[in-house]
Amino acid sequence: MQSLSKVTEYPSVDQCIGGVAEFDDTQPWIYTLDNPYLHGVYAPTTSELDVAGLEVEGELPADLGGAYFRNGPNPVFQPKNRYHPFDGDGMIHGVYFRDGVASYRNRYVDTLALQGEHRDGRSISPGVMGPFDYELSPFGIKDTSNTDVFFYDGDLMSLWYNAGHPYRVDAHKLNTRGYFDLKGRDQRRLSAHSKVDPATGELLFFDYGNEPPYMTYGVANARGEVQHEVAIDLPGPRLPHDIGVSRNYTILHDLPFFHDMDVLRKHGYRVLTFHRDIPTRFGIIPRHGAGSEVRWFECEPCYILHTSNCWEEGDWVIMDGCRSINPMPSAQPGEGELAHMLAYMRLEANNYRWCFNMRTGEVREGDIDDLNTEFNKTNPLYMGLKSRFAYHQRIPLHHEGGYTLRFTGLVKYDNDSGRRWQWDYGPGVFGSEAVFAPKLGATAESPEDDGYVITLVTDSNNWQSQCLVFDATDIEAGPVARVRLPHRVPYGFHATWARGEEIYAGG
C-alpha cells in the first residue's frame, strides 16, 4: 500500500523511525500510525499555553475588541481502533484582542470521556469508524466535544457534531466547568450548530438520535432556561448537522444521507449512504411553534453541512448555505482500510440559495457559485436579517491535491450577485474557519461588511502559526495584521467570535 502520509506530502511512518519526527511537541505514538489525519498540519499538540503581548506584523485596528475561539481534534491517547479526525479530543484555541494587544491561550475540553482515559492511561472508546459499543458510551463512540464553540450565557459552549453533551468552558481561562446544563431540560444532548440569536440572546437548539423521537427542537432564553421544546416527526434516524434561523422561523433539515440501523445493530458499524432517489426536505417551524406546525418543503437531493444565514422577504423564507450533491466521493485506489474515511473527508460543496414561499408552497433553488467552498460564516449581527456577504474557505478537490480536507484560501461572497473575492493563504499554508468580527460598538444597522475577518493559519514550510486579521471590505488586499502565535496550531473545525462588549463586560 502506498504510504498515506506520503500521499499527503507529510513525512511517512518510515521517515519517522528512530525518533526522527516532524515535531517535538506532539504525541509520540502518532509515528506508529500511517494516517494522514495524525501528521503534518493535523498532528496534535501537547502544549497548553498562556502568552500575552504577542508579536504583531502590521497594526491591530483600534476598534477590534473581542476574542477568536476555534475548536478542533487533538487526541491525547493512541486510538483503540482506526482513527478518524472526529475522534480527537476537543481543544479550544483562543486569540484575545484588547486595547491593541493580542494574547493567546489553549486548553483541552476536559470531557468525562477524556477524564476516564486519563485514569486508565489509555484510549478505551471506539471511534467513528467503529465498531460502536453502547456499553462504553451512550453514543456508542466517544463524545469528544471537538466540533463547535460559541459564546452563550456568559461562557463558551463546546459541542460535538454527533449531538453530544455540551460543555461549559470559561471564556477567559478556557478551563472546563462541566456540563452546560440548560435549566428545565431532562437530558443533555445537543447538536453542534445550535445557534444564539444576538438580538434576543436566545439559544435555538436541536437534538437527534437513533430512537424516536428522531429529532427535537427547542429554544432557551439568554439565561439558559428552556422555554420551548418539541418533537419533530421524521421517517427514521437522520444525521442533520445545522439549522437555519430567521427572525420568526427555524429551518430544520431532513437530508437523504443517513445510516442503516440494521447494520449498526447487527455489526456495530454506521454505514452512511446517500439516497439519490429521496428528496431533501426542509421543515420550517415558527420559532416557538408546535411540532404539528412544521411545514415541509421538498428540494433536490443533497447534503448540507453549514448554512450561512436565513431571512424573510414577504411570503418568502430564504436560506443561503453550502450544498453537496456528492457527500460520499468515491474511494481512491491504494488508500487501504482508511479509504472510505478519506473519501468522506474530501468535502465537495458550493455556495447555494434556497427560497421557500410560505403562502403558496413554491420552492426556488440554485447555485450562487460553483467553486468548491465550505465552512461559511456571516456577520453575526445580521443573523436572521437580510444579508449579502459570506466568508468561505476554499477547499481543493482531489484532482487539485485535496487528498485530505484542507483550507487553502479565504473567499468573500456577495450572495446577491454571485461575485467573489479571494485571498490565497500561500503554498503549503492552511487556514481555519474564518469569523466576522464587527467593530466595537457596531449594530445590525451598521454596514454589513464594516468589520474584520479573522482566521488562523499554519505554514507547513516552517510549522509556524499566525492569526490573520483582514479588513472585511477588502479581502484581496491581504491581512492588515498578522499575529504570530507561540506554537504550532493543529487543524481544527469550527470557530466563533465573542464580542468585546460581551466577553469583557464588567472588566
From TrEMBL:
Domain of life: Bacteria
Iron keyword on record: yes
Tagged with keyword Oxidoreductase: yes
Keywords, alphabetical: Iron, Metal-binding, Oxidoreductase
Required cofactor names: Fe(2+)
Listed GO biological process terms: carotene catabolic process
One Pfam family it belongs to: RPE65
MF (Gene Ontology): carotenoid dioxygenase activity; metal ion binding
Protein name per the record: Carotenoid oxygenase family protein
